[in-house]
Specification:
By secondary structure, this protein is mainly alpha-helical. It contains 13 helices and no strands. It has 3 domains: 1-43, no CATH class; 48-162, no CATH class; 171-264, no CATH class. The chain has helices at 21-25, 32-37, 48-65, 70-78, 80-97, 107-115, 124-138, 145-156, 171-193, 200-208, 212-234, 241-254, 259-264.
Length: 269
């Protein structure tokens, strides 16, 4: 399957090329051959996770090169050998947590990912990213190019998860997670602090016999458990956070059912 970029440049600022329409239209030049040939094509976002991780990594490197803040920075300046040893110990712990995959430049691991000759843990990209950052902060001479390639390969490989799902990108799952575990959870927290229930929520309280946040907490917990179980069904890899999140979701369902919590959330007619 032929693969090519959609655009020849990165995104430009809104209105930046309106004075030169030719340059603006040339942004679509890579889409023309497909249209001329009359074949089908698909635009698939790639590099989003790697680009975000790379941007954060670069900013942290720049900040650390100017000196670490507070007591940690003073310790690094006054006792560089001890600070380097502490970073080495942290790297060893990261290596053990990753099953030994973060040791070295990461070239062999990146090659395995690209050539699909061996499956690495889903957490490999995260652990390699963290190990590369600690290595740089320690002040030990070394390169960043090969470890950065390994981090990108570890993060980008997980885009293959979408092949077994009904979506082609992470937009819809991301919006779902934002809505359920971001906005809905924030709404529940506000409900717990601000016990008033105006309008529809008041009628819901009367129907339930308890404050609406009581049922909302159990609903969000049930959705969380169902989401992780769905991941188990479609994703070939397993992540450390998955069983933890299932436990959190189960607690969100079970704790409101305790007699003390049922009484706490009870509303008077």
């Amino acid at each position: 399957m032929p693969t090519a970029p959609v655009a020849p440049t990165t995104a430009f600022r809104l209105g930046e090329k309106t004075a030169d329409p030719l340059q603006m239209y040339l942004s679509d030049i890579f889409t023309i051959p497909v249209n001329l040939a009359g074949t089908c094509a698909m635009s698939r976002p790639c590099g989003v996770a790697g680009g975000l991780a790379g941007g954060i990594f670069s900013q942290l490197l720049v900040l650390s090169s100017r000196g670490l803040p507070g007591r940690l920075g003073a310790f690094a300046r006054e006792r560089p050998v001890a600070f380097g040893a502490a970073c080495g110990l942290l790297l060893a712990v990261i290596g053990l947590a990753s099953g030994g995959t973060t040791y070295g430049t990461g070239y062999h691991e990146a090659r395995k990912i690209v050539e699909s000759t061996e499956a690495l843990p889903a957490t490999y990209g995260m652990f390699k990213w963290l190990a590369s950052l600690v290595s740089y902060i320690s002040g030990i001479p070394g390169g960043l190019f090969s470890p950065s390639l390994a981090v990108g390969a570890g993060l980008g490989a997980k885009l293959a998860w979408l092949d077994g799902t009904p979506v082609n990108d992470f937009l819809l799952p991301g919006l779902f997670i934002l809505g359920i575990y971001g906005l809905a959870t924030l709404f529940l927290m506000v409900g717990l602090v601000w016990r008033a229930s105006p309008g529809f929520l008041r009628r819901l309280d009367l129907r339930l016999g308890r404050h609406w946040s009581w049922a909302g907490t159990m609903l969000v917990g049930a959705v969380l458990v169902a989401w992780i179980l769905y991941e188990f069904a479609i994703f070939p890899d397993r992540m450390v956070l998955q069983p933890i999140l299932i436990g959190v979701g189960a607690l969100m369902v079970a704790i409101p059912l305790l007699p003390s919590m049922r009484g706490f959330f009870a509303t008077s007619t």
